[in-house]
């Protein structure tokens, strides 16, 4: 306990001399030390870090500029290709439409020819049937005449 009391007395004597803020030769020394440390930290740490951050910022800016230019070029190419594709589609649709019209015209012509040929065949068949009918009638008439004549002869022979 005696030691504790002695320690308290020593602390109170030092506080009485200068207190917490003692303005002696240590204050300018601390100020010089602070300024020297600031200069050293600025040279060793802050400038290289600042340079690295500036280089990174410039790299990012250049990358963004390059990316923007590439994006514009890509958009232009896309638009060009889309325009070309639309034009190609129009041409293809036009070719398909023309081919369909040509095919329809050919089909219509073939159908018309087939109908005319079918009508001709029907007329020919009708004419041949009429000719055969007339021949059959003539043949029948001659056979009827022959049969009538034979019947007449038999009837006459029977009557005689």
From TrEMBL:
Recorded family membership: Belongs to the ATPase B chain family.
GO cellular-component term (any): plasma membrane
Entries under InterPro entries matching the protein: ATP_synth_b, ATP_synth_B-like_membr_sf, ATP_synth_b/b'su_bac/chlpt, ATP_synthase_B_chain
Keyword Transit peptide annotated: no
Species of provenance: Plumaria plumosa
Top-level taxon in the UniProt lineage: Eukaryota
Protein name: ATP synthase CF0 subunit II
Segments passing through the bilayer: 26-46
Signal peptide: 1-16
Pfam families: ATP-synt_B
Function summary: Component of the F(0) channel, it forms part of the peripheral stalk, linking F(1) to F(0). The b'-subunit is a diverged and duplicated form of b found in plants and photosynthetic bacteria. F(1)F(0) ATP synthase produces ATP from ADP in the presence of a proton or sodium gradient. F-type ATPases consist of two structural domains, F(1) containing the extramembraneous catalytic core and F(0) containing the membrane proton channel, linked together by a central stalk and a peripheral stalk. During catalysis, ATP synthesis in the catalytic domain of F(1) is coupled via a rotary mechanism of the central stalk subunits to proton translocation.
Location in or out of the cell: Cell membrane; Membrane
Coiled-coil positions: 89-150
UniProt keyword Transferase present: no
Gene Ontology MF terms: proton-transporting ATP synthase activity, rotational mechanism; proton-transporting ATPase activity, rotational mechanism
Membrane topology of the entry: Single-pass membrane protein
Subunit structure: F-type ATPases have 2 components, F(1) - the catalytic core - and F(0) - the membrane proton channel. F(1) has five subunits: alpha(3), beta(3), gamma(1), delta(1), epsilon(1). F(0) has four main subunits: a(1), b(1), b'(1) and c(10-14). The alpha and beta chains form an alternating ring which encloses part of the gamma chain. F(1) is attached to F(0) by a central stalk formed by the gamma and epsilon chains, while a peripheral stalk is formed by the delta, b and b' chains.
Keywords in alphabetical order: ATP synthesis, Cell membrane, CF(0), Coiled coil, Hydrogen ion transport, Ion transport, Membrane, Plastid, Signal, Transmembrane, Transmembrane helix, Transport
